[in-house]
Every structure is written in C-alpha cells, then in structure tokens.
Amino acid sequence: MSEETAPEASVLGQLDQRIKRLAKTQQLDSAIVLSKEMAVKAKDLGDSNALAKSHFRLGYYNKKLFNHLEAFKNYDKAHVLYTGLKDQALAAAMLMSMANIQKAIGDFNGAYISATDALSLLENSSVKEKFPAYHIITVSLKEEGKTQQSLEWSDRIKKLLEQNDAANIKSQIINFENTRANILIDLNQYDEAVTHFQKLLDDESIVENKKVYAMVLTNLARVLWLKDSFNDESESMFMKGLKIREAISDVSGLISNNINLAKYHQENSPAKALQFAKAALQYSEALNNPVAQLEALDLLLSIKSKIGTSVTQEVNLYSAKNKHLKLIQNKIRDIYALTKFNSDQLERENLILQAETAKKDKQKALILVVLIIVVLISSIFMIYKNATRKRELLEASIKTEAKISKKVHDELANDISGVLNYVDLWYGEKEESKEKVLTHLSSLYKKARDISITHAHIDVRDYNKALRNLIAQHHPKDMQVITSPVNQINWDSKSEAKKIALYKGLQELLVNTKKHSKATSISIVFKNEGKKIITIYTDNGVGFMVTEQKLNGLNNVETRMKESDSSFSFESSKGKGFRAHLVI
User: Fold this and answer.
1) Contacts of the segment 247-250: beta carbons below 8 A, 24+ positions apart
2) pLDDT at residue 350 above 80?
3) What counts of helices (H) and strands (E) characterise the chain?
4) CA 542 to CA 517: how far, in whole Å?
5) Residue 480 backbone phi and psi in degrees, to 5
6) Which of 33, 40, 113, 174 has the fewest CB atoms found within 10 Å of its own CB?
7) Distance between CA 516 and CA 509 in Å, rounded?
C-alpha cells in the first residue's frame, strides 16, 4: 500500500469501528449516516470489499428500521459487488436478505426467485448454509397457494435433514417443523398437524424459549379450532400465547395472535373480534408491516360490516396501504430485474469474448487434431495389418494340423494297420515273438490314431454337436462326466479360431484327466458372462504340484488359447484335484 492511500485506508478502518459501536447501542440512524460516508470513501479508493460491506450494512440497518425499499436497494448493490468479487457465499447471503424483504412485503414470487438464485450459488455448501433458502422457497410457495409444491419442497428439506447432522441448526429446524405443520393445515390434514405441534411442545428447548413456545402454542390452538370450532381449548391457548408475547414484547407474534383471536370471535362475539382486529392493526403499524396491516384492515372491514358500523375510514386506509405496498413491490421487482438484465448482458458479452478466443484457439488446435488423426489412422492400419497377419498365421496353422492329421491317418495309421493284419496271419510259427510284435505295433497304431484325432479338422458349423461328441469320445466307463447344456451358449458370436482353441483345450484336459488324474468325476460348465463365454473344467483326481509336474500339455493349451486372443488358467495341488478356466 502506498503512503498516499495508507491514511485513507486508516480512515475506512476508523469509520468501520465507529459504525459497529453505533449499531451495538442501537443508534441505527447514525450508523446509516456513517455507512453512507464509508461507501463514498471506499468507492473513491476503489476498495470493492469495503464498498460491498458498506452497502450490506445500509441494507441491514434500514431493514431493522423497516425501510424495506432502501434496504433492498443496498442489499442488491452488495450482491452485485460480491458477485464481481467471486464471493459466492456472501453473494448468496445478500440474495437471501433480499428474499426475506420480498417475503415481508408479500412479494412471494419475488422471494421464491431470489431464494432459488441463492440456492444455485450454494450448490457445494453445507446444509446449514442451504437451509434458509429451502425454507423461504417452501414458505413462498405456501403463501402463493401452491400448497402441494410447498409440501414437496418440505419433503426435500426433511430428506436433507435425515441424511445430514443437523444439530447445529436446531432453531431453523423448529421453524421448518412449524411451517410443515401449517402446510398440513392448508391441506386440511388437521390430525397430522396437531400431532406435529404437540411433538414440538414436548421439546424442552422449545418450552424454555418463550417466543417459540408462544408461536407453536397459538398454531396448535388455531388447528384445534379449525378442526372443531366448539372445542374448549383453543381460546385459552390463544390467550396464553397472547400474554406470553405481551410479556416479552414480541410485536410480530402479537400481530398474528390478535388476528387469530379476531377470526376466532368473528362469528359469535363480533365486539371482541373488533378489539382484537384493532390491536392487530396497531401492532402492524408499529412494525411497519404492510402485509399484516392489510390483513388487519380486511378483518376490520368484515367485522364492522357485520355489526353495521361505518367502514369509510378503513376502506380509505386499506386503499392507500394497498397502493403503497404495490408501489414498493413494483420498485423492488424493477431493481432486481435491472440487476438480472445487467448480469445476463455481462454474461452474454463474456460469452461473445470467449467465443472469439475459442475460435482462434480452434484454428490453432485444428492442425494438431489433423496430425493426431493421421497418427491414429496409421496406428489403426498397423494394428489391423498385424491382426490380419496373426489371423492368417492361425488359419494356416489350423489347416496344417488338419493336413498332418489326414496324412497320419491315411498313410501311417493305415500302413500300421496292414502290418498288424499281416503279422497276425503269417507270423504264426513263433507265437511269443508274434505277441511282442503285435503289442508294439498296436501301441504304435494307437499313437498314430491319437495324433490323427488330436489334430483332425473340426467342423464348427454345428459346434454343440462337436462338443458333445468330444465329451462322449473321452468319457471313460468308470468315470462320471457332468456338463451344463452346451446349446444354451451363443457360440455363433465367436470366431472359428476361438471355437477350435476351446475344443482343442478341452480335448487336452480330458486326455490328461483320463491318463493321469485317477479321477472318478469330471465337471464341465459353460456359461455366458457379458460378451465372454467361460468354460470351467474340474476333476476330483489326485492333482499335482505345479512346480513338479511336466506341463507340456497345459502349456500347449495356454499357447493355443493366447493365439486366438483367449485366455487359460488353472490351479491344482496334490490330493485336491484340478480346476481350469478357459475364456473365449
């Protein structure tokens, strides 16, 4: 801070302290004068924070003095400044203060809009900060006659409270519960409202707070009267609430209490009702509450008309008050409408500027995007080319296996079979030698046949049949084989290579179980999981230690599965059988 501005900043600090002292001693008119002086100084210095604080104070002190229009103007200016300072919490607080003024002058639609705007700024805030906005929205909808919508917002608040720790907003919750009960009254759900109020009166903290206790007590009296106009409790409860409010000088509560008593006596005791209506008017004038003034005047007109007394004075006063209230409401709406327009205009200008900047950035980014696309296309081409080459190699491998199988079967196995027949027919002189030769040749023939079968071509057009034949072919007489239905699997979704890999893998596992496991049971389960088909192969054989066992056959299964972009895994240990997963 420069030497020139330092003394000025010191002046702002001194004004700030003087304003606080005046406000503390309730010298609000003097506090307003100094707050205006502070606003001028802050503006000259370009201190937006101090200027915003000055307008907030002017709004707050004018509201205390019931100068609604002046209060709203200053809250609105503070809101604009805090918005410019990017202080969403304080900008929202100013909107809430504006909403409360709009509610006080009967502009419930305006209050709803201001509270909704505040709520949009409090999206990431705590329940404590959001709660007042929710409550004003609920009350505004109720007062506008949108009772069902009001109840829906009340339900939303209730859910919010259930999901969060609300111990630090007990007083606000009491107001919410009171409002909810009043909504139930408007919906003619009297019994539920009575239960609500009685539950509140059972709360010790409410009983100790005379102002809140009187409010709940008179609301309970009202609903009991609406439910049964001949009940014996309502009048005494109304009067008890009135005496409490007189004792604590609760002027706002006295207005409500007297209006309720006037309505209670209106039919049967018009003279009593007239006195209570006059009292309500006096208190509302003392509080400068235009909405309450009109309600009290409306009651006076009704009661005086009933007893045949002149209403000229009340009619003229009602007309003047109503005209004045409408004027204030319209001026306040104009203030906020202009603020909204300026805010929207600024946002539009910012959007245009952003669009122009974005256009330049887009041109710069376009070249980079083109380069990225070229690289991507090249990469995709290479991947495709490699995949095609891999597929071609796999198909060639399958064809080669089939050729080897055919050659082994057609040439080697047939030749061995001929030799077997020849030896059996002509090698009869030396029976012992003949048996040895036949045994070796038979073993050789079986090996040739197994090689032929293992590498034979598989017709996957009817894959269900191929799998059933495979399992039947390797089903030992002394072993139980349990399988899930193969026809429930969507085999058509898989390539020929994948189906052949699975077939060969199962073939290898079945042969291994038959030769080595000493199992008495095999389980083969097929199942769909998303786009994958999983086969779980289990036997209850002797098992093996993976590190000790020769794994050539299982390694072959794994290699074959990987070549078709499938997977194979297994687990086993001595005495605990064997389990494998084949996924295609």
Assistant:
1) 247/210, 248/210, 248/211, 248/214, 250/211, 250/214
2) no
3) 22, 5
4) 5
5) -90, 130
6) 40
7) 10
